Amino acid sequence: MSKARALMFLLATLLFHLYTGDAQKSCDKSDITIKVLKISTVIQKQQVYIAVFRTSCSCKMKDVHFSCDGLQNSIVDPDRNFVDVDRSGMCTLQRTLTMNSPLQIMYSSETPVNFRVLSVTPAC
Is 119 helix (H, G, I), strand (E, B) or coil? Predict the structure, then answer.
């Protein structure tokens, strides 16, 4: 009978560990960083920049919505496969953001755009 109890205890411990082992579900918008890099190109008085989006979360990050006021005036058209830009200065990443695969968006502006993540959906 003691072997059965030990086996039940071991099984319960294993199931508990498996259940809480993927507990990275606390990922949120604070796990996303956006770094803006200035490159040496200027087009019609607008500096060209690259915005690099990264996540420190082990979960995939979907539906990343962020403020991007000024991006709609970019002479360099941001790749619509990566970002949807609306006229009100709001943007959505069109791709899922993962820990080891940062996303980059090239744009131009007289000053760097002040990106700020507003919401995200962790997928884990």
Answer: strand
Q: Does the model's pTM come out above 0.85?
A: no
User: CA-to-CA distance for 41 and 55, rounded, in angstroms?
Assistant: 27
Question: What is the CATH number assigned to the segment(s) 26-123?
Answer: 2.60.40
Using alpha carbons, list the distances in angstroms from residue 93 to 1, 25, 68, 111.
57, 20, 11, 21
Contact in structure between 61 and 98 (CB atoms under 8 Å): yes
Domain segments of the chain: what residues? 26-123
Q: Which of 3, 121, 103 is nearest to 63 (CA)?
A: 121
Q: What is the mean pLDDT of each run of 10 residues along the chain (124 residues)?
A: 49 44 70 96 95 96 95 92 90 94 95 95 91
